[in-house]
């Protein structure tokens, strides 16, 4: 088939099944030395202790290196640089849209901010785009909880969040409202 991998084939002389590694055409023909023997101690399983570093630690190390190198980046930017460099997918977290809606509920069939804005405009429902304010609130939460990218982490000095604590002027005082967020998740880049 020309694929890259391990294949079992019958031996032309004995008919017994025999395994063999095949290289794809991209890598060309590569051969091992016939009769290679390896010592058993080199074929043991890896050490029992973990061989990884948490991404949170990578974020903190990256932030410290960038700050000591006098790069003018925010904590959020430093953490995103770390996620991009040390995450297999290279996906970074981020707030894509934040809309404050004067309503008791939002239909579940909406997938994008454009769809939501279009529906709200057609029904005459009041809304305000607060994406900028939410990005700043996220930045501040990263400052208070180093290495943590959670949007609303539990903080010792703030048991709960509200619009005032996030420095968002309440455009609908006394009315029911919903904060509709669309974000990109760290790790795999999934959009929600």
Order of helices and strands: EEHHEHEHE
Mean pLDDT: 82
Q: For the report, how would you describe the main beta sheet?
A: 3 strands, antiparallel
Helix content: 25-40%
Q: What's the arrangement of strands in the largest beta sheet?
A: 4-3-5
Radius of gyration: 27 Å
Count of individual helical segments: 4
Broad structural category? alpha+beta
Strand percent estimate: 15-25%
Q: How would the global form be characterised?
A: elongated
N-to-C span: 41 Å
Tally of strands? 5
Low-confidence stretches: none
Provide keyphrases for this structure.
16% strand; 3-stranded antiparallel sheet; 27% helix; 5 strands; 192 residues; single chain; elongated; 4 helices; two-stranded antiparallel sheet
Structure description:
- This protein is α+β, with helices and mostly antiparallel strands.
- 27% of the residues lie in helices and 16% in strands.
- The chain has four helices and five strands, in the order ββααβαβαβ.
- The strands form two sheets. A three-stranded antiparallel β-sheet has the order 4-3-5.
- Helix 1 crosses helix 2 (75-86).
- The longest helix has 14 residues, at 55-68.
- The mean pLDDT is 82.
């Amino acid at each position: 088939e020309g694929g890259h991998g391990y294949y079992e084939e019958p031996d032309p002389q004995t008919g017994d099944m025999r395994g063999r590694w095949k290289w794809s055409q991209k890598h060309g023909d590569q051969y091992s030395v016939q009769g290679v023997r390896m010592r058993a101690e080199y074929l043991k399983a890896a050490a029992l202790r973990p061989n990884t570093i948490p991404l949170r630690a990578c974020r903190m190390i990256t932030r410290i290196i960038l700050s000591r190198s006098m790069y003018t980046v925010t904590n959020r930017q430093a953490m995103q640089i770390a996620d991009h460099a040390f995450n297999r997918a290279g996906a970074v977290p981020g707030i894509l849209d934040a809309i404050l809606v004067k309503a008791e509920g939002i239909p579940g069939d909406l997938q994008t901010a454009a769809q939501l804005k279009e529906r709200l405009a057609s029904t005459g429902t009041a809304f305000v785009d607060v994406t900028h304010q939410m990005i700043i609130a996220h930045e501040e939460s990263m400052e208070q909880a180093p290495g943590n990218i959670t949007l609303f982490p539990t903080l010792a000095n703030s048991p709960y969040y509200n619009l005032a604590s996030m420095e968002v002027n309440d455009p609908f005082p006394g009315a029911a409202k919903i904060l509709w967020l669309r974000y990109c998740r760290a790790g795999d880049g999934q959009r929600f």
